[in-house]
Amino acid sequence: MVERIRAAYERYLRSDDWKVKRERALDRAERRCQICYSPEGLEVHHRTYERLGQERDMDLTVLCGSCHGSFHELLRMRQRAAFDETEPPPPPPPRHLDIPDYNALGDDDDDDEKGQ
Ligand SMILES: [Zn+2]
Ligand SMILES: [Zn+2]
After folding, report:
1. SS3 call for 36
2. How many independent structural domains does the chain possess?
3. Which residue, of 13, 35, 57, 68, is most buried by count of CB atoms within 10 Å of its CB?
4. From ligand 2's centre to the CA of 112, what distance in Å?
5. Would you say residue 49 lies in a domain?
6. Which ligand is closest to the CA of 43, given by its number?
7. pTM for the structure as a whole
8. Is residue 116 part of a domain?
9. What is the mean pLDDT for each group of 10 consecutive residues in the chain (116 residues)?
10. Neighbours of ion ligand 2 (CB under 5 A)
11. Of the bound ligands, which one is closest to the alpha carbon of residue 13?
12. 45 C-alpha vs ligand 2 centroid, how far in Å?
């Protein structure tokens, strides 16, 4: 991130305005990580800094510390792949790793529609 933006960002993170938005994001996610559903060590991630100060709800994602870390690692890898043309992006996973056809799994796993 550009230093000037970083300084403004850090100032913003200490503002009451941000605290309100952060709380609202946490409430919306029911105070759970939106990846692993953990209630521990939650952080609010900006998907974009375009609207810093006027974020839309969709600009914010609630993540636990551990998912947040891995998420940024993934973003860094993607950025590196996009900028470094000597290093091609990794190939797509082989077909046999695809999730099997949902209908082929049978009826005996957990059913979400309980109480019949
Ligand atoms: Zn998580
Ligand atoms: Zn983040």
Report:
1. coil
2. 1
3. 68
4. 32
5. yes
6. 2
7. 0.65
8. no
9. 81 95 97 97 94 93 97 92 70 65 56 58
10. 45
11. 2
12. 4
